[in-house]
């Protein structure tokens, strides 16, 4: 499938003009770094995934460098992985088949998905196994992505190619007038090591675990030495940092300004003019670039400017790199504009914070588990804290290490409130975020409220070597009004089984057991704890029972989403969640 076929899947958005100073968070930037000469390969675009199809993970040989085979870890044989393009409000489904020889999951980065759909390493699919991911797409239109999240294997899996775009569209954004179709271009930025060409050799040593696995050869959409032919018009570029550890300081080679219009969670509430910004692993930023001032035959390069950062060895953070050359070749107009207005964002009020949580990031020792959060490293079955639904929290993150940590939270998006006490934030911080870069010895405050799914989710560093080294914690989103799931599955001999199938549409079955005669109730609740349907309410003799329900026949039809069913008998209360997909 060519680029036109991919992008004409209705990628839309918008912007508002204003002006702020470019981000200046690293000091003593290098001014004399040499540029890597680009030989030139046309920018590639991965195929589009067909919603409801199969995502098969396996090793494959692909041509990354012309005329040479690279063995990658690929979804459906593609590097990068096929791009998911879905509309807000639809139901996404992918049948995952793990044909690799190691456990694997798919994490839908930035997407608000139920616990069992989130790709937590506890839910890893074994080699030869299968799993169906399905969930309603609740997120705002924006640029998201997916990648491996297997325990202590994430870094290697992603480095070998297991990642791809997840783009959410919304027809409501079309009137904003942003560039669309061929002029709306997703760019996945990754780095590899030129010494290993043509292979993606992953051999993380102590220095790599300490600072992250860095390369010196940028790949854009899997293309080395990439160029892209553009017209003298306005373009939208969706930038994704899909690298394991490298931070990029994005700029144009002539320092011409552009507009930042979107962050991790979709459009900002205003477009901001900037000449550079930092993009850390896991972050996404959408920008508008106007090529009208250039003449046909000219070119300009998207690059990462040099900056000073901690680290040592052959591969250094902050190295100046050419990323993608834009060759101006035509006059076709995109018809896109920088809109005068954008839909507003309601920002959280710090005065409404109910809970303050403190996180201290440290690095100590010289072996495994040197990267820690609050002195802890990841333990699969340990819950490190519980957060109640609908309660605004402040997360105060202190980086007490001389290292860079892009911190990422699963489940819902957050808002960056301040850096070192200042609320005058860089433009790429404002808006909805799920990943934020924390600089050495910096304190960043986030505001977050979980309003959707309950369950176990992750908070971790998105430097993937740090994550695999243990810089990750579990948190559990709970229901303050008593619909929490009882995972023990047994209480005083009462048993409530998981409904099957789950997720389902429209029918599912529930089996339960009661050890003695008595009055019982089996009821269905929505996410806010409101009772919406009674399946059983009355006397039953001891034994095993099965109940069937049809989502289309309850209250005029249940919408896609997460629900809870609860068995109660005297002092016994057991509940489980079910997922309706339509």
3D structure, described in words:
By secondary structure, this protein is mostly beta strands. Among the domains are: 350-478, Immunoglobulin-like (Sandwich); 490-580, Sandwich (Immunoglobulin-like). Helix content is 4%, strand content 42%. It is built from four helices and 39 strands. The strands form eight sheets. A seven-stranded mixed beta sheet has the order 12-11-10-14-19-16-17, with no helix packed on it. A six-stranded mixed beta sheet has the order 1-13-21-20-15-18, with no helix packed on it. Strand 35 and strand 36 (531-540) form a beta hairpin. The longest helix is centred in the N-terminal third of the chain and has 6 residues, at 154-159. The chain is globular, with a radius of gyration of 24 Å.
């Amino acid at each position: 499938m060519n680029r036109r076929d991919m992008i004409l899947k209705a990628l839309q958005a918008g912007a508002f003009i204003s002006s702020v100073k470019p981000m200046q968070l690293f000091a003593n930037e290098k001014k004399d770094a040499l540029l890597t000469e680009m030989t030139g390969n046309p920018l590639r675009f991965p195929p589009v995934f067909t919603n409801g199809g199969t995502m098969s993970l396996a090793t494959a040989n692909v041509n990354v460098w012309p005329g040479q085979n690279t063995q990658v870890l690929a979804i459906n044989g593609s590097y990068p992985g096929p791009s998911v393009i879905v509309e807000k409000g639809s139901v996404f489904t992918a049948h995952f088949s793990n044909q690799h020889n190691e456990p694997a999951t798919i994490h839908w980065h930035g997407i608000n998905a139920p616990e069992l759909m989130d790709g937590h390493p506890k839910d890893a699919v074994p080699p030869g196994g299968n799993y169906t991911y399905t969930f309603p797409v609740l997120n705002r239109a924006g640029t998201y992505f997916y990648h491996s999240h297997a325990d202590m294997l994430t870094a290697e899996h992603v480095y070998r190619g297991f990642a791809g775009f997840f783009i959410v569209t919304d027809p409501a954004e079309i009137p904003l007038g942003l560039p669309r179709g061929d002029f709306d271009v997703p760019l996945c930025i990754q780095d590899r090591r030129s010494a290993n060409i043509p292979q993606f050799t992953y051999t993380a040593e102590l220095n790599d675990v300490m600072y992250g696995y860095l390369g010196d050869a940028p790949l854009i959409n899997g293309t080395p030495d990439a160029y892209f032919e553009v017209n003298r018009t306005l373009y939208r570029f969706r930038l994704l940092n899909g690298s394991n550890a490298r931070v990029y300081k994005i700029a144009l080679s002539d320092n011409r300004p552009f507009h930042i219009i979107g962050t991790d969670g979709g459009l900002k509430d205003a477009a901001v003019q900037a000449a550079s910004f930092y993009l850390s692993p896991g972050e996404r930023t959408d920008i508008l670039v106007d090529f009208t001032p250039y003449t046909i035959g000219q070119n300009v390069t998207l690059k990462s400017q040099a900056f000073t950062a901690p680290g040592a060895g052959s591969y250094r953070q902050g190295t100046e790199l050419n990323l993608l050359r834009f060759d101006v070749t035509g006059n076709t107009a995109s018809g896109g504009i920088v809109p005068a207005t954008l839909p507003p964002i309601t920002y959280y009020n710090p005065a409404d914070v109910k809970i303050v949580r403190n996180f201290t990031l440290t690095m100590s020792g010289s072996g495994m588990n040197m990267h820690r959060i609050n002195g802890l490293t990841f333990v699969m079955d340990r819950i490190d804290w519980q957060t109640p639904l609908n309660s605004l929290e402040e997360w105060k993150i202190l980086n007490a290490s001389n290292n860079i940590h892009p911190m990422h939270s699963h489940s819902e998006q957050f808002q960056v409130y301040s850096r070192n006490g200042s609320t005058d934030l860089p433009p790429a911080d404002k808006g909805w975020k799920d990943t934020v870069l924390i600089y050495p010895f910096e304190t960043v405050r986030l505001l977050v409220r979980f309003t959707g799914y309950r369950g176990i989710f992750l908070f971790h560093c998105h430097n993937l070597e740090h994550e695999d080294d243990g810089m990750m914690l579990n948190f559990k989103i709970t229901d303050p009004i008593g619909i929490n799931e009882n995972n023990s599955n047994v209480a005083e001999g009462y048993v409530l089984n998981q409904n099957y199938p789950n997720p389902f549409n429209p029918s599912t079955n529930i089996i339960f057991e009661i050890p003695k005669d008595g009055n019982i109730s089996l009821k269905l609740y929505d996410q806010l704890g409101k009772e919406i349907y009674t399946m059983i309410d009355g006397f039953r003799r001891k034994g095993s029972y099965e109940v069937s329900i049809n989502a289309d026949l309850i209250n005029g039809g249940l919408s896609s989403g997460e629900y809870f069913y609860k068995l109660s008998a005297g002092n016994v209360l057991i509940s489980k969640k079910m997922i309706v997909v339509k």
